[in-house]
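Subgroup meeting minutes
Present: P.N., E.W., G.H.
Scribe: E.W.

1. P.N. recapped why we're keeping a running log of single-chain structure predictions: easier to compare across weeks, and new members can see raw inputs and outputs side by side.
2. G.H. added today's entry (283 aa).
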Amino acid sequence: MHNLKTFLTEADTLKQQIGASIKSCWYRGQSNPWDLDCSLARFYRENTDVDSTKLAIHPIEESLYCDYSNQSDGLNGGARNSWDTLASMQHYGVPTRLLDWSESFLVACFFALEKTFDPIKERLIGNHDPTIFFLNPYKLSSHSARSDTSTLPETYFKDSRKIWNVTLSKNLDYLENVVINKNWHFNSPLPIYPPRNNLRIVAQQGCFTVHGLSMDALNHQKSSRDSLRQISIRDHRVAKEIWQLIQLHNISEHYIYRDLDRLGSHVKSRHKPLPNKRANPTA
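Output recorded in log:
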């Protein structure tokens, strides 16, 4: 794979394999092809030797949510519901059962390359293997496994091939179900519509999958077998051409993260004076 055209052709082939069109595909960019673990599972495994079962992981999950929710009041624009709070936690580095995706292929490429590509030397750096994951969320939803303890009415499952809007009903409320009742209606990951009152989510064209009772990585769960594919960027030239496309579409740290720190760096970079050049001395 030595040019962008070949890379994009292979990407289209992978999308066809999972039955995803341009409008029905979600993307995730990573600096390495790590397993698709939610940050809550990673956080738990990194700090304990106990298996991350539902019963073992719940006290930590509840403490994280309650502590953040209590201290973030007035700082996050006023969360309308518990999913707003959970999305805010995810985007500010608190472990959750959410996994970030984007409807934009180039946004995913940015996340894959931002720490693995040197735009000055125009080369991939380190021992990274930047990877883009492709997900057909509708197919994932149709294969999502309902938990034995679910109390959802059957009407919720008449059309399982959908993106779930978890903010519409208290039956799907995160606080009510996961934190208070210590339960959830699904064993496997579910694609959900994200809250839209977060500027980062809007800028990143963000989407989420929410892990169910099983804390196994999404790519190791049965429900994702025919809805998930991946491709890695291993060629310097391909990385350079993708990065040029990212710049052409004005995708930058400021565009992606939407905070004042990145805005300051962005403005400083845009208005940096050109180096002075001495005139050649006349003979």
